[in-house]
Amino acid sequence: MTNSFKKKDWIWAYGFVAPTILGLLILNIIPIFQTFYLSFHKSGAFGKGDKFIGLKNYAKLFSDPQVWQATWNTLRYMLLVVPPTIVISLILAVILNSKIKGRNFYRSVYFLPMVAAPAAITMVWKWLYNTQFGLINHVLGYFGVGPIAWIDDPQFAMYSVAIIGIWGSIGYNMILLLAGLQEIPKDYYEAATMDGATPIKKLFSITLPLLSPQIFFVLVTSIISSLQVFDTIYMMILNTSPAYDSTVSLVYLFYNNTFKYSDKGYGSTIVILLLAIIMLITVIQVRLQKKWVNYMEG
């Protein structure tokens, strides 16, 4: 009888996880193998008739200066976006976790960018950055500054795109960190107060150590997301823009080669490079987490 109940439990368990496993298999795992397979091929005329060419795509990849420029642009975007996003999200989460008036309203406002369409957000920012009619240059004009070509000048374009990335990511990360803050037992803070600990001391001795699992999760997901940046750059920076070379990302380069130039093989090779970079950075993070992430024992 006991074995029968256990068998039913296993059936129910597999039944509940089956949709997720099936989704991962169809949408993630199978495409990875297909991409790896295509990276050894070259598309024929009009993107049809794949021809096996061995390692020629990889040889072309390592000698292509545009690929390495796109790799640097992608890593640079990550460095510009991830640290400020985590710091600002953490500060906002700490503030909104305290008893302040209208905190539910502020939580909703900061989370709004996550529910808005990325294309709509990018179009609004593109208008704000407009050299001649943009609101930002209009305001700067009162101080005798400008006009600045925010999205056409290679000197400013990447920073302009990074600001959109930071603004769009803060709300989601803030909610995750806020959930972690609410899991920290209040007894720790009460005991620290009785010992005369200052708010700064509480932050570094209690909050950050106990929030480190959530910070680690936000760090990993933010890095992966930033390395896959595409839509913002695609909509902000045209191929003919002077800032194209200084902002084109690996995913943008993959899109151009695969869909504009109908070379799925070389596009797949670029994706494999991006996958290798993401895996390498993630493995390093997982190994380093043992030195600074503290998991509370239940």
From TrEMBL:
InterPro entries the UniProt entry points to: ABC_transporter_permease, MetI-like, MetI-like_sf
GO annotation (BP), single: transmembrane transport
Annotated transmembrane regions: 12-33, 77-97, 109-128, 156-182, 203-227, 267-288
Pfam families listed in its UniProt record: BPD_transp_1 (PF00528)
Keyword Mitochondrion: no
Predominant cellular place of this UniProt entry's protein: membrane
Matches recorded under CDD domains: TM_PBP2 (cd06261)
Compartments, as annotated in UniProt: Cell membrane
Coiled coil (residue ranges): none
Top-level taxon of the source organism: Bacteria
Similarity field: Belongs to the binding-protein-dependent transport system permease family.
Name this polypeptide is given: ABC transporter, permease protein
Organism per entry: Abiotrophia defectiva ATCC 49176
